[in-house]
Amino acid sequence: MKHIFLPALLAAVTLVSCKSKPAQLTFENIHLRQIYEAAKAQHKSVMLVAKGEGCKPCEDFELRYYKDTAFSKSITDKYVTVFVENSKPGNEWLSRVTNTSAIPGFVFTSEEMELRGIYIGEMSAERMKAVLAQLDTAKSFISERFDINRDSSYTTDQIKDFVGGPLKGQLQLEIYGKTKDKSVLEGVEDRLKKSIAVYPHFYNNFLLAQYYKQTGNAEKSRQYAKAALETKQTVSLTLNMQLKRFAHQMADSNYNEKNDAFMRLDSAERYVPFIALHKADSLFFEFTNTGASPMLIDNILSDCSCTVGDYPKEPVLPMQKGKIKVIVNGKTPGIFARRLRVFSNSSNSPVSLTIRGEVK
């Protein structure tokens, strides 16, 4: 009797344990193929949340999501949720797909990873409720506060093509990388060409170059890799800096980045202990061109108009040193962190500079 009862009890405990284990509906920093597999397993749509360090609206949304079970359930009833911290190396893919570093960002897709909507900026509980209700409407699409190019306006279909093409295209390339089944690449070429037709940037050209490389068309792979490298848009260059070497290799099989200029900073961060309110201070960042070609700085962009960078206008020859002068204005009192990006012909462009300090 005892021997009959014990297996039955264990079976019952196992059954209860299996039934009580909830499906995972929230993920952090996973990639598209994993997201797609989770969505298919749960038969749910997807909400991607781009977040970053020091972003208060990102922190507010995430705190509400994890603390307010009713709020999170209103989302996870129909969506697998994935938080992507795009400031961490390896997690830049979502910002590259949307071609924006703006956070928080919300990207909504179907179970099949077809784009349903994109929303940039702070998301209140009330706004999320309205967005989800609109997405419940058949064939409805959300696009709010998202700019492809601030100098132009775009239709809903163009936004779908611009973001949806790289999103689905990257997924298909990831699946192909695992399976080597070329049938999964169906439609990639058309999707990416539509995205490029709306607005070309580094990543949609880069993905198309990758597609042609995987399908054995070296000539077209070179063509689109060169198009990626010809991008002048600063956001796109910043988001894709780590991919430049791979684009160069597709564009030219003999490419060696050691032949390029390379900006090696003595220090990428400086600390200013004190700046008087409404006064200015200046400091220098020193660098060496350790590459084999002359370096020419094109531009320096700052995250604040109160911080301005000046740079050598003449080429910096190999193994020569140069200086970047930065003027910091004490615009408002308090602790600050100012960031600048230096654009040049160096293989590691753009290079980031950070200045921390306090205005009193």
Automatic annotation (TrEMBL):
<dbReference type="InterPro" id="IPR036249">
    <property type="entry name" value="Thioredoxin-like_sf"/>
</dbReference>
<dbReference type="Pfam" id="PF07610">
    <property type="entry name" value="DUF1573"/>
</dbReference>
<dbReference type="InterPro" id="IPR011467">
    <property type="entry name" value="DUF1573"/>
</dbReference>
<dbReference type="InterPro" id="IPR013783">
    <property type="entry name" value="Ig-like_fold"/>
</dbReference>
<protein>
    <submittedName>
        <fullName>Uncharacterized protein DUF1573</fullName>
    </submittedName>
</protein>
